[in-house]
Design a protein that fits this description.
- With 246 residues, the chain is an alpha+beta fold.
- The protein has 2 domains: 40 residues, no CATH class; 206 residues, Jelly Rolls (Sandwich), CATH 2.60.120.
- The chain contains 3 helices and 13 strands, in the order αβββββββββββαββα.
- The strands form 3 sheets. Strands 1, 2, 3, 5, 8 and 13 form a 6-stranded antiparallel sheet that branches. Strands 4-12-6-7-9 form a 5-stranded antiparallel sheet. Strands 10-11 form a two-stranded antiparallel sheet.
- Strand 10 and strand 11 form a beta hairpin.
- The radius of gyration is 22 Å and the shape is globular.
- The termini are close together.
């Protein structure tokens, strides 16, 4: 076999072996269950499954609450917590609709994803976390459903990817939040104890307002390399080298 044919055969084998599998979990609230998601409850208002305020008039998880901000969190669904650093890629997405933010006049608020790890918390902080700001939302700009999504291309990265911030300590010079000493992005991703969609952006202070916000199609997608891909790749390359030497 010529060297060119060997290379083509090798590349074909590599393409098959390096295929990856993706697994998605979607919570759309159509079954009347929250699947671990919890919005604010108590004196300020309520969070509940609205059977007709979701995407396309379907079900969605709605909060009507007065406070400085709102948080939708999940610490019990194994699809949304645990070791994400083991994956090749992870994508988080959610559909969001704002009916109202503001007590008298519409006000914008940040909307972010936060991945929390309680085990690495230091210095009196409740948790260490990494967070990603999607956008500032209001009924003027997000009165219809908007899909927010972020993909982590390397969950085992030590450094924070572009657009991500850290929480659990502060810079004594700038007083901005950051990850605690010795804690990396990969450390947080390897032990996510709670996932949250929140309007409490670190380093910002907010006034008490009324929130009427609905979430739908809360999704996590993980990508896992095919088993044995690295070994098959090595064998195919060695076979090509041996054939070329004949």
């Amino acid at each position: 076999m010529s060297s060119s044919r060997v290379c083509l055969a090798t590349l074909a084998l590599v393409g098959v072996c390096m295929s990856a599998s993706a697994d998605s979990t979607v919570v759309d609230f159509e079954d009347g269950m929250t699947h671990g998601w919890e919005g604010p409850q108590g004196f300020g208002g309520i969070s509940f499954i609205d059977p007709s305020n979701g995407v396309g008039g379907s079900a969605g998880y709605r909060t009507q609450f007065s406070d400085f901000g709102i948080v939708f969190a999940n610490s019990t669904n194994p699809a949304f917590v645990g070791n994400f650093a083991q994956y090749q890629q992870v994508t988080f997405s959610v559909d969001v609709k704002v009916d109202q933010i503001g007590t008298f006049l519409p006000v914008p608020r940040p909307f972010m994803l936060e991945l929390r790890d309680f085990d690495t918390a230091q210095g009196g902080y409740p948790w260490s976390s990494v967070f990603f700001l999607f956008d500032w939302i209001s009924q003027d700009t997000h009165g219809d459903y908007t899909t927010f999504s972020v993909t982590i291309d390397d969950p085992s990265s030590v450094d924070l990817p572009a657009g991500w911030g850290g929480y659990g300590d502060y810079d004594p010079v700038t007083f901005e939040t950051r990850l605690p000493p010795g804690v990396t992005f990969a450390d947080i991703l390897a032990g996510v104890d709670e996932i949250a969609y929140s309007t409490y952006l670190p380093d910002f202070f907010f006034t008490d307002e009324f929130f009427d916000v609905t979430l739908d199609n809360i999704t996590v997608t993980t990508v896992v390399p095919a088993p044995g891909a690295a070994g098959a790749l090595t064998l195919s390359l060695l076979a090509g080298v041996r054939r070329r030497r004949r």
